[in-house]
Design a protein that fits this description.
3 strands, mainly alpha, 223 residues, hpI Integrase, Chain A, 8 helices, three-stranded antiparallel beta sheet
Amino acid sequence: MGQVVKLPQPEGWESFLELFLFERKAEGKALRTIYAYKTHITSFFKRFPQALRSEKDLRASVLKYFSDDIKPATFNLRRVYLKTFFDFLVKENVIEKNPVDFKKRKDEGRARAIPIEILKELLSAPDKKSYAGFRDYCLILFMLDTGIRPGEALKLKKEDFNFASFEITIPDNVAKTRKKRTLPLSPVVAKEIKKLLFLQPLEWRDTTVFCGFEGKELSVQHS
């Protein structure tokens, strides 16, 4: 067992969080992931500011926090972010043992059957006579076809699409998980996306596929 230093004062969690986030940045984690870590860890310590006073207090605080009446998905998110942070504190000899030593809850997922009428209404909403409307139509088709995350779809470039094999490569710098992956693309959706690319001026060749009307990359907030 490694040497364990004296537990910090209750107000010391902020400095440990700062070091933890610096380490995540050094590992190349996405800004959205770093923000999620900061949000979840801060939420816990705002509620239990004296949790680091002793191992006993920390364990009690963690158990109380996870005993909330919350959905499995929320429980599992809390578990992922806090467990990683406490692993960091163990590594830094701040605490002796990670208090998040319980399993995640079974999550049945959020998949829902969407009535065909709703899908037709969704696809008919964009004005396909305008560039922006046709782009939105293609983006909706693309997301329904592949299940890709909006933030990932908006960062894809032309070279990520292989229309010959009907595949899309999600580069590691685009993927939320930071792991490259390949998704199948249906011929019908591929045809519509090729039409979209045909409408774009030649000077847009280096931009993203689902870009704005000036050829600039869109964000999730603006799409």
